[in-house]
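=== Structural record ===
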Amino acid sequence: MSSTDIAEMLEKSKELDRLRKEQEKVLLEINTMHNKLQSTPEVVEKPGDNSLSKLKMLYTQAKELSESEMSISNQLLGQLDAIIPAGGAGQQRRRIGNEQKKKRMKGDSDIPRLSPSMRNQQEFFASLKGEQVAARVAQEDGEKDEWVIVKVTHYDKETKEFEVVDEEPGEDEEGGAQRKYKLPWLHIIPFPKISDLATTQEFPPGKQVLAVYPGTTALYKATVVQARKRKTDDYTLEFDDDEEDGSLPQRLVPFNQVVALPDGHRQ
């Protein structure tokens, strides 16, 4: 495990801590609104009162913060899964030794038990049906994988796999057929939504990201040159290997086509 991996995990942990503090603030505001409406419910009938609109906004903000927390937690889990060594021979012997006990407990242990966070994760993944997301797909020539825009058609809660379709026909596909894939959740990154404008993750100048190259449906590694502009909500990016006349051109990319660079990304 490299020092870079540790630093990235620590940064994600700090982000988790920030998100939880934000959630506490929002929940406190929600409780305050609840108390106000319980004590004086007639205020909502007064002209110009925006109590219900504000409450809806707070609920939306709490939901988005929760989804962001789950996304970062999943990234941390993926990093840990990648670096924790598989069980050795000693563990294998213990599993064999406990096989009879496992058989006796089969009736109880076969019942799936999902923690609240796992249930939220499953619900979030299922809610992506019909959405466009960034997906890591394998190239037919066996070379490096690539990230492209796909549409989610189904999420299988049993296998934890997404069924997606690349709506852009491949050049080699007969009759312009669309490619379909089954992918694990680790190969999927949801895009920020337009409605997430106020709460979506900000990428500062110098930060490396994964972004849709203008005019294509492919995502490539890029560096933020200028943070998101408030008027246009575009980032100014420089894409790796995009050299023109000896320099990297700066390109504008909408914020909802820019995501965090996956760990271990290779282009």
The first helix runs from residue 3 to 39.
